[in-house]
Amino acid sequence: MFAPEVINNLTDAIAEQLEDKMTKKYHPTVSREEAMDLIGCSAAVFNEIRKRDDFQFVHIEGISSRYSTANLIEWINGRRK
């Protein structure tokens, strides 16, 4: 069995690699459809998510239906609540 420190370090390394690949796959901002694809939800569910207080930092002010890719990935990973 692995020590908890090893598991935590491995998990962090995997998360960083995945985040790096996802960021490179998408532009700095994503459309509504791309955001739904990243989250893996339907349009109805995404409308509810958009209304959440903890999701507001993802939306880019002044630009209709564009979201920050980096902030969206942070939100998905639960780093910002």
Automatic annotation (TrEMBL):
Domain of life of the source: Bacteria
Protein name, as recorded: DNA-binding protein
